Amino acid sequence: MLAKLTAFNNRLIPGRSLDEQMDNTFILAQQLGFDALVYDYSPVPIDLNGTLITPSLLQLRNTPADWHALWCSEGFYQIDPVQHLALSSVSPFVWSYEAKTETALQKIIDPCHAPVSSYLHERQLTCGVSVPIHLPKGGFASLTGLRTGKARTVLKDAQHTLADFSLITHALQEAAYPLFSKEMRAYPHIRLTKRERECLKWAAEGLTAAEIATQLSRSLAVVTLHLASAMHKLGAKNRVQAVVRATHYRLLEG
């Protein structure tokens, strides 16, 4: 095991580009028998309605050419049962879309997942291993290795590689995370201005608009305008709801 850790660390050296980290991770995954690799990162994994949010980062190796477009633009990510299972799991797991197998996936899969299931069956990528990583402050990442071949044999082999694949995943996350930009670590679908964030932060402390105006040395009209703009961007009915939503989406950090 020590030798394997050394090999991982030699490949995944902090400071290299994210693409190089992924290339080296894929080399290690191939040595374990995996044919394709999917890495995703989200600073906020679900919206206020519990729907999966398209990740800020999706890195792929040896997947079909249309994978990124389908998962990020066509809604496959939101109906991918492996992603749902990863988000609700704390441990690595083996999965299969084959009906006759017994994995955690069979317990949750239903007709709404049919587009993803059909796509993977057509490309013979029905088995794999996923490692969820629950990050501080609510961020989420996962690495999935996909395998081709007969399900029973593939699952047996995948089970044997689960520990090593988990080590690779955490080594990748440790090396890659420092490379993420500030923008990538924030929820990308709502952009608040500096003043809007400041006003919401003070509102979160319980200050009224007049008190915020005094704190920021701005007029009440200007502060009210910033708060109203933030509420509109967040789809909030009032300031309390705006603060709750901004907090959920990690927009008040930093």
From TrEMBL:
The protein's matches in CDD domains, at most eight in alphabetical order, are given as: LuxR_C_like
The organism's superkingdom is given as Bacteria
UniProt keywords (A-Z) are: DNA-binding, Transcription, Transcription regulation
Report domain HTH luxR-type positions: 185-250
SMART domains, A to Z: HTH_LUXR
Q: Does the keyword Transcription regulation apply?
A: yes
InterPro entries tied to this protein: Sig_transdc_resp-reg_C-effctor (IPR016032), TF_LuxR_autoind-bd_dom (IPR005143), TF_LuxR_autoind-bd_dom_sf (IPR036693), Tscrpt_reg_LuxR_C (IPR000792), WH-like_DNA-bd_sf (IPR036388)
- Provide any one GO MF term from the record: DNA binding
Q: Which GO terms describe its biological process?
A: regulation of DNA-templated transcription
- The protein here is known as LuxR family transcriptional regulator
Q: Which organism is it from?
A: Pseudomonas lactis
Print the organism lineage. Bacteria, Pseudomonadati, Pseudomonadota, Gammaproteobacteria, Pseudomonadales
